[in-house]
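protien #1 (seq + structre)
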Amino acid sequence: MILTINQYHNLIANSDLTRSLDQFRSEFASSGSVDRVRLTFVVQKKDDPTNQMFVFFPEARSVGVAHIREYISKMSKESVTNGIIVYGGSMSPLTEKVRTSLPSNYRLEKFHESDLLVNITEHELVPQHRILNDEQKKDILKRYRLRETQLPRISLDDPVARYYGMVR
């Protein structure tokens, strides 16, 4: 089954989710700049609390190989196999190569901050997307008398596919 960010729920208190901008600034940006390391958090899948994901916010503007190794080490220590990096600057081609060539049991996605300014799934021009489990997919194939190869494909680089964490 495909894991999506919507299938996870935060281990963050409701008071943290309803925090005002001024409250956020006083807690995470008291020195004038945001303490991005303190923003790191863990989420878990609603129906499987053992399936967790880290969300990292690198302090450095440029994400390097050392950051990737640090995150994988942290994930390994906590027995977490999924992660997201939300970065504000750049990621070198070598860092990207290291990130994409991680062992198959680790998945570390990346999002630039600018990709997350607007929730594209709520935009009026983006059609509703729904991820099907295996049983729902079989029902669709049976109802329309299709083979799996006849279903439309979505690119893994598609913004909605990235938002939902779709995997091939």
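ok now protien #2
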Amino acid sequence: RAYETSKMYRDLKLRSALIQNKQLRLLPQEQIYDQISGVWNLSSDQGNLGAFFITNVRIVWHASMNDSFNVSIPYLQIRSIKMRDSKFGLALVIESSQQSGGYVLGFKIDPVEKLQEAVKEINSLHKVYSANPIFGVDYEMEEKPQPLEDLTVEQVPDDVEIESDEHTDAFVAYFADENKQHDREPVFSEELGLAIEKLKDGFTLQGLWEVMT
């Protein structure tokens, strides 16, 4: 439900129910920072005159003669905000992300000084939003996690002293017989089908297997 009711914060919308009595229908946590009249939408050959609403969440343009002819551009979907030359003169160009369709939307604002101020303001709000985005979903954490400083435990070195023994012979650990000095002669084992060291008297292969298992 939270995802479905917060789409306006994330999705670029065309011809939606955005305007009521010439005023923007604000979303929760949304604030209007500026409203600019006399803004031409350059999507058609002759252009359409309308107005801008610049908020902390999105940019909304609507036509003066038809409120349903509008566009809502969330900062989340804005790829770039620039000024470019067009057949109508210097214009504000907003490029949306590929995820939202990769639209290139042009708007003309006169005079040029007013256009420059609008570009600067929109870029500034876009940076603020990018650093601290608003997704339209309120939540409360039931249990606040402890800070990392409280969870960090100082590592205490182990009180272990390693004594070196230069006379240790590693091969001694592999001798199966106590006090064994040399290998016994090899003999053929019919059970294994290969040559093995001759077993001590009283030992059998079966007995050695039983010890291992």
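Confidence is low (pLDDT under 50) at residues 170-174.
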